[in-house]
Amino acid sequence: MLSQPPKYPNAFSAAEIIATNEDLLAEILTRVPVRPLLRFKCVCKLWRSLISTTQFSHSHTLHHPASFSGIFVRTTPGLADPHFQFVPFLCNENPSGSPFDSLNFVHDPAGIKILQSCNGLLLCSSLRKIYKNRNFYVYNPSTNQFSVVTPSAAANAKSTPILGLTLAFDPSKSPYYKIVCVRSSAVSVLHDQIEIYSSETRSWRSSGSPFIPPFDMVFDDGVFWNGSVHWLRSMGLLSLYFDVEREVFGKMPCLPATEGGWSSPKFRYFRESGGHLHVIEIHGQCPSQFKVLELKKDYSEWFVKYKVDLQALVDQYPEMNLNYFDHFGSLSYAFVVLFLARDDDGKNKDEASLLLHIPVLKNKPC
Fold first, then answer.
1. What is residue 38's three-state secondary structure?
2. Strand pairing partners for 358?
3. What is the pLDDT of residues 251-302, one digit of tens each?
4. Residues 6+ apart with CB under 8 A from 329
5. C-alpha span between 252 and 268 (Å, rounded)
6. Which pTM value belongs to this model?
7. Which is nearest to 266 in space by CA: 254, 279, 284, 293?
8. What is the predicted pLDDT for the residue at 286?
9. Residue 180 CB coordination number (10 Å)
């Protein structure tokens, strides 16, 4: 007769050992993809608390480099009570996993709009007309967590208007984000001032002295890339960037001139994707052919990365090549470039996906 192994009342199973060791549990959970990880927050209070920490989020990001699956597109025309739809890059991908379709993470009587996004975080604001009375929020749609960012009290006391806000967040380097704010300075109507908000200290502070920007600098469409916030001038001339860590300005080279010289484009796309900074400008009456420019990391020049020819698509949907005058009296096109996606971690590093909005395709299958 085989004897039974002795039972020890204080012995732990492997599962019990893992469950009671937070360091070991965190090491395992950092390997879990995002969607199932969010479901794991419902297992128990310990798991929820662990997964929600800033340190865990940073560690998880290091194990799972960012990849693009799609974008959120606003489906309602008005600013009040906006609704969104997740549009996947692949037509056969199931969009049902969208984390939200409306901005209801907090109750704001004035309503909420998205100012911009940066590496998975959304910078939002209330819809109040006066900036100093607005609430600002940084929202993580994956975790449904948000932080309230109050405007700088010192600057508000001087009633200097905000010219632009840009979210600066690189989860591969730090779990904390910063917000770079450009305000008009009280020194003179020609001067502006940089202010920086840090999520680590939860406070604002002024950076450097007031400066005089180029007359046509656009600060409300800043792009965070390569550790800096970048702004383009309306006519594509010598532009500025601001190194967020060193807190110094630098100059970007001019965009290549068009055949007619430098002029304001009828359409401009200025975004970062896959660690690259791109610009698309359309100047002429026919937008079916255009170039995608990329900025070298040493800021030496813009170069042509892609040449896009949409003529085959225009032949099938001629409405997209129409142009019209909008309510500002500016010439616009019937299609819009929503996003240029690059994924250098994939097999084809030089390939990119271009996501377009074409109204005539609304009810057509992919």
1. helix
2. none
3. 999 988 776 555 566 678 999 988 999 999 877 666 778 889 999 999 999 9
4. none
5. 17
6. 0.80
7. 284
8. 62
9. 23
Name the DSSP class of 25.
Answer: H
Element holding 303 (H helix, E strand): strand 302-309
**Cα–chain-centroid distance for residue 87?**
16
Q: Which of 276, 297, 325 is nearest to 68 (CA)?
A: 276
The 8-class DSSP code of residue 343 comes to -
Reading the block at residue 138, the tokens are 């940084």
Strands (E), 106-191: 112-118, 121-126, 136-140, 145-149, 162-168, 178-184
**Burial state string for 255-269 with b = 16 or more CB within 10 A and e = fewer than 16:** beeeeeeeeebbbbb
Cα–Cα distances (Å) from 30 to 17, 24, 47, 57, 150, in that order, read 18, 10, 12, 8, 32
> Amino acid letter at 337?
V
Rounded CA-CA distance 275/357 in Å is 24
Question: Which amino acid, 266?
Answer: K
Nearest Cα neighbor of 214 from 198, 197, 195, 235 is 235
**Would you call 55 exposed, middle or buried from its count of C-beta atoms within 10 A (0-12, 13-18, 19+)?**
exposed
Rounded-to-integer distance, Cα 290 and Cα 255, Å: 14
Distances (CA, A) of 76 to 18, 82, 138, 275: 47, 6, 22, 31
Q: Which helix (H) or strand (E) holds 37?
A: helix 34-40
What's the full length of the chain, in residues? 366
Contact yes or no for 223/270 (Cβ under 8 A): yes
Half-sphere exposure of 79 (CA within 13 A, CB side): 12
